[in-house]
Design goal:
By secondary structure, the protein is of the alpha/beta class. Helices cover about 35% and strands about 25% of the residues. The chain has 17 helices and 27 strands. Strands 2-6-5-3-4-9-8 form a seven-stranded mixed beta sheet, sandwiched between helices. Strands 11-10-12-13-14 form a five-stranded mixed beta sheet, with helices on both faces. Bound molecules: alpha-D-glucose-1-phosphate-6-vanadate and cobalt (II) ion (CO).
């Protein structure tokens, strides 16, 4: 074991979901090591306990896994459970932490960010409940990165991670596990696999786009091998270190292959895609895209058809920018709907307290209390189980939902890589107006409330301020602006537009038309285009 002298790096502050930087940043000497040492220093309880380790297989995963293992050995960790070849999806890590009663987990992933030598890398710490470390812990890790002056690492050679079983690294036990088996068992315990299998036997067709990311093997095993979807139903199923040059973010822009298939003549009955680390999903039907906010609401409204929810839904939660569609379902069911800041860590306390058992975000993450992470394949299986039970198409389920609850027209505009000074100008410009906006009208809509979102955790009372700027135009229209916490170049500003309509003839308006007044209001209120020189559109 060696103690290596080091000096702090600026900016090792975990964002919405761990520390995310370019591969070039992570490749700097001592960069990863400093952060990992800060985790070990901030979580002394890890000593003499079990740590779970795995990543999404992106470029630099292999190197980073060996580094973390050697540092764990030198820091006195008793046992590390690691996925074969250093691979584990995010929800699989969460499950293994819980199942093996580990004390925490380290996930190597930058999720939806592109990979490869010119892409991004990331690292995230999860606690004993299986969920992302809460802010108190990520703040402590950050504080530690600012002062540490050495890290501990063993001098042992790299270990072979391709063979299952137990080996030793210094005094530490390393248990190499199959990345799939525990996760598959968990899914089989939650859903009616027989009903879904019968549906596939009856000719139901599916296309799952794994986007060359970690869910490929999971999806092949579960959907094709166990459930009988025809071979080839999983596309882009081979995980690649650079995701085949793609951007593993399941949305209409980046999951183009899937959208082309689902909007073609020969579209299968169901389409889905997942992201880099397997915690997100999108759901589509023939010529139908279900926005993630609607998907959350639909899954909550239909969950009782599925074995996992035999006792019903006790409460739901959504992140603040997510549309209010889930709120309407919760209110009809007479259960609470909590509104949290963006990021899965904010759902943890509610899930642990049993206050909710379904939650989700507009960015295509939905999950339940079966793990403490969002879970892409789980959401896909929940959809499939509901369809198998209800025998309706995705399009019919979506239409029925709107007719029952009304429709929350919803869209998000992401403007990436804005020069930090210009982004700041936009923020200051909007923020200065917030106190005086109520009572003013923009593109024909009267502002009734304008505020900066702040959250008090109902369980531990932690306050999280500055979680986004919200402008409400009565009960029906809302505009939100947030600064992203996952980008690695400049500043990403996200604009979330939402407009509610309950009248039947207007449920099928084109999305852009329904949201046009809000987009115009966003341009006026933020003066975005003048201040940044960038268009506020989808180009
Ligand atoms: C984005 C999403 C957020 C999600 C986060 C991590 O954060 O908007 O909803 O929780 O990514 O997802 P931001 O701060 O860039 O808006 V993932 O799949 O990276 O673990
Ligand atoms: Co992800």
């Amino acid at each position: 074991m060696t103690s290596v002298k080091t000096t702090p790096f600026k900016g090792q502050k975990p964002g919405t979901s761990g520390l995310r930087k370019t591969v070039a940043t992570f490749k700097q000497r001592h960069y990863l090591e400093n952060f990992v040492q800060a985790i070990f220093d901030s979580a002394p309880e890890l000593k003499s306990q079990t740590l779970v380790l795995g990543g999404d297989g992106r470029y630099h995963n292999e190197v980073a896994v060996q580094t973390v293992l050697k540092m764990a050995a030198a820091n006195g960790i008793k046992r590390v459970v690691v996925g074969r070849s250093g691979l584990l999806s995010t929800p699989a890590v969460s499950n293994i932490i819980r199942k093996y009663r580990a004390c925490g987990g380290i996930i190597l992933s930058a999720s939806h960010n592109p990979g490869g030598p010119d892409g991004d890398f990331g690292i995230k710490y999860n606690t004993a409940n299986g969920g992302p470390a809460p802010e108190a812990i990520t703040n402590a890790i950050y504080a530690r990165t600012q002062v540490l002056d050495n890290y501990k690492i063993s001098n042992d050679a790299d270990i072979d991670l391709d063979t299952l079983g137990d080996i030793r690294l210094g005094g530490m036990q390393v248990q190499i596990v199959d990345p799939l088996s525990d996760y598959v068992l968990l899914m089989e315990s939650l859903f009616d696999f027989d009903a879904i299998r019968k549906m596939f036997l009856g000719g139901f067709t599916l296309c799952f786009d794994a986007m060359h990311a970690i869910t490929g093997p999971y999806a092949k095993e579960i959907l094709e091998t166990r459930l009988g979807a025809k071979e080839g139903s999983v596309i882009n199923g081979m995980p690649l270190p650079d995701f085949g040059g793609g951007h593993p973010d399941p949305n209409p822009e980046y999951a183009k292959d899937l959208f082309e298939i689902m909007f073609s003549e020969s579209a299968p009955d169901f389409g889905a895609a997942s992201d880099g680390d397997g915690d997100r999903y999108i759901a589509l039907g023939k010529n139908t895209y279900v926005s993630p906010s609607d998907s959350l609401a639909i899954l909550a409204a239909n969950a009782h058809h599925v074995p996992q929810f035999a006792n019903g839904v006790v409460g739901v939660a959504r992140s603040m920018p997510t549309s209010g569609a889930a709120d309407r379902v919760a209110s009809a069911m007479g259960i609470p709907c909590h509104v949290t800041p963006t990021g899965w860590k904010f759902f943890g306390n509610l899930l642990n307290a049993g206050a909710i058992n379904i939650c989700g975000e507009e960015s295509a993450g939905t999950s339940s209390d079966h793990v403490r992470e969002k879970d892409g394949l789980w959401a896909v299986l929940l959809w499939l189980n509901i369809i198998a039970k209800r025998r309706l198409s995705v399009g019919d389920i979506l239409q029925e939902h709107w007719e029952t609850y009304g429709r929350n027209y919803y869209d998000r505009y992401d403007i990436e890589a804005i020069e930090p000074n210009k982004a700041k100008d936009v923020v200051v410009h909007l923020e200065n107006q917030i106190p005086n906006l109520a009572g003013q009208s923009f593109s024909g809509m009267l502002v009734t409330k304008a505020y900066v979102f702040s959250y008090t955790d109902p369980v531990d009372k932690t306050v999280s301020d500055n979680q986004g700027w919200c402008i409400e135009f009565g009960e029906t229209n809302r505009l939100v602006m947030r600064m992203s916490g996952t980008g690695t170049v400049g500043v990403t500003l996200r604009f979330y537009l939402e407009s509610y309509d309950a009248e039947l003839p207007s449920l099928n308006k084109p999305l852009q038309l329904a949201l046009d007044p809000l987009l115009k209001a966003a341009r006026i209120l933020t003066d975005f285009e003048r201040l940044t020189g960038r268009p506020l559109d989808k180009s």
